[in-house]
Amino acid sequence: MGIKPLSREEIKKMTVACRIAADTLTYLDKYVKAGITTQEIDDLANDFMQTRGAKSACLGYHGYPKYTCTSVNEVVCHGVPDSTVLKDGDIINVDVTSFIDGFFGDTSKMYMIGNVSDEHRDLVETAMMARDKGIEAITPNGYTGDIGFETNKYVTRKGYTTVKEIGGHGVGRIFHEEPFVPSFGKKGKGDRLVPFHCITVEPMVNQGTEEVVEYNIHGSSVKYYHTADGLWSAQFEHTVLVTDTGYEILTLP
Ligand code: MF3
Ligand code: CO
Ligand code: CO
Questions:
Q1: Model confidence over 193-235: pLDDT tens digits?
Q2: What residues flank ion ligand 3 with Cβ within 5 A?
Q3: Buried b / exposed e across 213-235, counting CB within 10 Å, b at 16+?
């Protein structure tokens, strides 16, 4: 397998990249309200990352045209910032990936706009818990299937579904690397986790069907996705360092 553990120095750099990405999401808290456009959110995130000496990893990534991904309501992921105005009751995932000193830090969270319905609040809460259940399943030399199993178990018990074709990934000197981290699976199956390598855990949780519809982004090979039934979707993402005793979450707020 091609996964190499990070050195102590590399872990320090990874920690810095992840700190900036996490702080960007926190910085956005006071701005992501009814009336703002997703384009304005994108610019704010870019300004913040620049102030901290980092660049957005998204801009130019396989031709992706913006600094962040902003996925509103039925958009599952990779929503492209534009003139869309957020309104009362919306839910939005903002996904930030910073790049600094050779390393990538990747994290996303949901923001709830004004009065969000109880059903959508529950969806958002479930997505956050699903991510955390997945992370808690990480053990040194465990398997990606351990993470997916716990994630999917939690989500399906709540009556929701997990998206199967998109998921987490290795991250470090490369934005997206091995292993694929599914939001479903079997304990002890999938790829081996490697101590002192980083992965993301980022389950996409759908209210209704797990099926998604793929759309092209002009000028890019990155796709964005909607739920196939138009019901809403939620996602939270952390970058996590697998250690020799367990794990450390590098993108805590
Ligand atoms: N940050 C996303 C992830 O969690 C990837 C975005 S790629 C982009 O993996 F090109 F759409 F920005
Ligand atoms: Co990611
Ligand atoms: Co991300």
A1: 999 999 999 999 999 999 999 999 999 999 999 999 999 999 9
A2: 95, 106, 108, 237
A3: eeeebeebebebbbbeeebbbbb
Q: DSSP letter at 192?
A: B
Domains with residue ranges and CATH for the chain: 8-249 (3.90.230.10)
Check residue 2 and give its pLDDT. Answer: 81
Rounded distance from Cα 58 to ligand 1 centre (Å): 6
Instruction: Give Cα 178 distance to the centre of its chain.
Output: 16
Ligand 2 centroid from CA 239, angstroms: 8
In this structure, which ligand is nearest to the CA of 199? 2
| Structure-token pair, residue 94 | 């903002």
Q: Is the CB of 69 under 6 A from ligand 1?
A: yes
